[in-house]
Amino acid sequence: MDSQVKAPNNDHFDKLQDAIERFNTEQPVMSRFPIKFMNKMELTEVEGGCVECAQIVPHDCFRGTVSTLGGDNPTVVSFDAHAVCRECGVISPIYGRVRVVGDRFQMEKVINGRWMKAFMTPEKSPSIAQTFFSKMQSLSKWLHSI
After folding, report:
1. Mean pLDDT rounded to a whole number for the chain
2. CB distance 66 to 48 below 8 Å
């Protein structure tokens, strides 16, 4: 019987180190908000959530880059960020984008390597956008459990 202990996976360790370094050097995602889109809708807030315990993290614990396409009134806003959970200490990657599609937002987030989509019409409050990313975190946790 082999009693050797396996060395930790360096790829996972490198990704963790990269996430910590990025978190320590990047700005809170909310520092770029509100964002007014080409179709005059305004996205006022986006929340980051923990993939482990599904808690919404405070704004100062949700850091990363926010990129826009389309100048002062963009058609696409992309997020590449990390959320650090104060409850369980997990670092959750958050990748997503919000696009203008006609008179709607099309909000998308990568879950298990696939873009998940939702639409929001102008008649609904833009604050609905706040909860989209956190709901996608809950969906991700459920998908990992099956």
Report:
1. 76
2. no
Helix, coil or strand: residue 111: strand
Q: Beta strand pairing status for 62-69 and 76-84?
A: antiparallel
Task: Indicate if the pLDDT at residue 88 is higher than 80.
Answer: yes
> Nearest-CA neighbor of 40 among 10, 75, 80, 5?
75
- Strand, coil or helix: what is 143? helix
Distance CA 98, CA 64 (A): 16
pTM: 0.68
Per-residue pLDDT of 93-139, as tens digits, reads 888 888 888 877 788 877 788 878 866 655 544 454 445 555 555 55
Q: If you write DSSP's letter for every residue of 48-79 in order, what string do you get? A: -B-TTT-PBPPGGGEEEEEEEESTTS-SEEEE
Domain positions in the chain: 10-145
Residue 109 near residue 140, CB atoms below 8 Å: no
Residue 71 exposed, middle or buried by CB count within 10 Å (0-12, 13-18, 19+): exposed
Contacts (Cβ under 8 Å, ≥6 apart) of 17: none
